[in-house]
Amino acid sequence: MANNAQTKPINVSFQVLPVAPASDIYRLVDRAIEVVQRSGVKYEVGPMETTMEGELDQLLEIIKEAQQACIEAGAEQVMTYIKIAYVPGGVTMAEKVAKYR
Q1: Of 9, 35, 77, 85, which sits most exposed with the smallest number of CB within 10 A?
Q2: Using only C-alpha atoms, what is the Rg of the chain?
Q3: DSSP 65-78
Q4: Could you tell me the CA-to-CA distances from 31 to 24, 91, 94 in Å, in that order?
Q5: pLDDT the model gives residue 26
Q6: Using CA atoms in the order 84, 88, 90, 96, what is the torsion angle rounded to 10 degrees?
Q7: Residue 59 and residue 73: Cα distance in Å, rounded?
Q8: 10-residue averages of pLDDT along the chain (101 residues)
Q9: Which residues contact 30 (CB under 8 A, 6 or more apart)?
Q10: Number of H helices, E strands in the chain
């Protein structure tokens, strides 16, 4: 049963806040978003965070890689806020926002 639950999509939203000079912040956030884009998971970039859909372990790994990309691009450190939306039967981003679109 655990394997079946892992194949159901969940949603994870995250926001990276790199510590760097103000002029570099957007450039560093762009590096994190590029990691998500290359990952192949379904995602949506919002004004305050990026939301991804998939399997939890994979999504958390993407977040770790996104943090590291910020460091490699020059951030002194990165604060990351993560939200996990878990529904036992799975839920897609489209299902969660369908009534608003």
Answers
A1: 77
A2: 14
A3: HHHHHHHHTT-SEE
A4: 11, 28, 26
A5: 94
A6: -60
A7: 21
A8: 60 96 93 98 97 96 98 96 93 90 88
A9: none
A10: 4, 4
| DSSP 3-state of 82 | strand
Cα→Cα distances 60→5, 13, 99, 100, Å: 16, 10, 28, 27
Question: 51 Cβ partners below 8 Å, 6+ apart?
Answer: 11, 12, 13, 43, 44, 93
Distance from C-alpha of 76 to C-alpha of 86, rounded to nearest angstrom: 32
Q: Do 7 and 55 touch, CB atoms closer than 8 A?
A: yes
The residues that bridge with 15 in the sheet, in sequence order, are: 81
Identify any residues that bridge with 85 across adjacent strands, giving them in sequence order: 11
Helix, strand, or coil here: 28? helix
Q: Whole-structure pTM over 0.70, yes or no? A: yes
What is the predicted pLDDT for the residue at 2? 46
